[in-house]
Amino acid sequence: MTYVDVVLTGVINFGLFGAVMMARYAIHEEGPDAFLIHGDGLGLLLFAEGCLLAVAVTAFRCALLVRWGKASVYLNPQAWPGTLGMAGALVFGFSGVALFEEGLFRGDLLQVVARRYPLHVSGAGTSLLFGLLHFASYS
User: CA 8 to CA 49: how far, in whole Å?
Assistant: First the structure.
């Protein structure tokens, strides 16, 4: 995996999310609010909490792997610029993927299905579809 791969993945997924938003606007005349995207204090606080939780869970997992002897930590100051660059690229790439998938499955598909079926059935159905689509990639 290179910087180019990760950044290109992010660009493609941000573009796909934009396409989902444009389709949603063209069909239902709904903007970013329909995807629960808002920049008020609460929205930014929840975003920050989610980011911190992701970092904490990742750090905890890494600490467990080191403790159990399944991983090691080596500090090499000469490698820090490359590591930080790749970390930035990964944050961008994963953010694009997360935004597109959340926008598609929860922002659009769930709301469309929920207009026809009860919310618990819609949530279970779209979650099952999401899991099935990812099963082959992560099995």
Answer: 27
